[in-house]
Amino acid sequence: MSILTILLNILLPPVAVVLQHGVGGKFLISIILTLIGWLPGVVHAFYVNSKKV
């Protein structure tokens, strides 16, 4: 995971997810979790972007 991805995971979790995986289910879940609270969005972004496909 690059430094840019890590920074985006922290600052803008949905943007980090969409850059890695495109617009889809993971992106929508990231938006919902970020709207509920910033921390759940960050945790989800790190989890999704750290998994190998």
Would you give an account of this structure?
- By secondary structure, the chain is mostly helical.
- The chain is about 80% helix and about 0% strand.
- It contains four helices and no strands.
- The chain has helices spanning about 5-10, 15-20, 25-35, 40-50.
Provide the fold topology.
Elements: H1 3-11, H2 13-21, H3 25-36, H4 38-50
End-to-end separation: 13 Å
Shape, principal axes of CA atoms: globular
| Largest β-sheet summary | none
**Overall residue-averaged pLDDT value:** 93
Poorly predicted residue ranges: none
| Helix and strand run | HHHH
- Tally of helical runs: 4
% residues in beta strands: under 5%
Give helix % range. Answer: over 70%
CA gyration radius, whole angstroms? 10 Å
Structural class: mainly alpha
Number of strands: 0
Short description:
With 53 residues, the protein is mainly alpha-helical.
Tag the structure with descriptive keywords.
mainly alpha
